[in-house]
Amino acid sequence: MDEFFPEPYLFAGTPFAINRIIMARLIAVAVLAIICILYAKRAKLVPGRAQAAFEYILDFIRKSIGYEVLGEEKAGKYLPALATMFLGILFMNITGVIPGLHIASTSLIGMPIIFALFAYIMFIAAGIKVHGVGGYFKSQLMPAGVPWPVYILMTPIEFLSNFIVRPATLVIRLLANMVAGHLLLVLCFAATHALYFSMGGLTGILAGSVTLLGGIGVVVFEILVAGLQAYIFALLAAVYISLSIEEH
Asked: pTM value?
């Protein structure tokens, strides 16, 4: 568990204490900001490889998340926020396989909560903007076409489902996946180290090689999971926005 609660090495004892996870978050934000600034300043009509790769990611967000869920007419105003979530989570997830960092920035609950609150505020604000305060909460808590006595049971369930479970599942899904991935990496490479240097002999070398290959496989898997979790998070945020702004 010490992996997830490392000792601070800068500004210890203050609210601005920086440990390995905070540093990984700062590096992820800095790298993403630099990439976005360079893209904005150096974008060309005929893109180079780097620009084409970044535009492919943005196009994927626009089509596979925005247009697919919200439709082309409604997606435009929400695409910047969805892209922010996708890219922010992707870059913070990927720090788990970066040498020298070796831990996902989202493997401690604070950052998943921040992203979930961002999505939470966004889909509530979108619904209020379309339906008004009263109309939005009525549509979410009291679905049309239901006999009045049923609302006594349904309204608390709808409240829990729409305003408690949604953000909670966003947090838990992202956190659990990144924590599990880090534990798998630690187990594989710790076993490799122990087998190579403690057990020794041919058996230790063979067994250590197996765990080493397993660790490399987990690294590849973690890269896929990093992208997949960013996609799922942004996709669900788009779904929640859609549920908030639709009439039915």
From this structure: 0.92
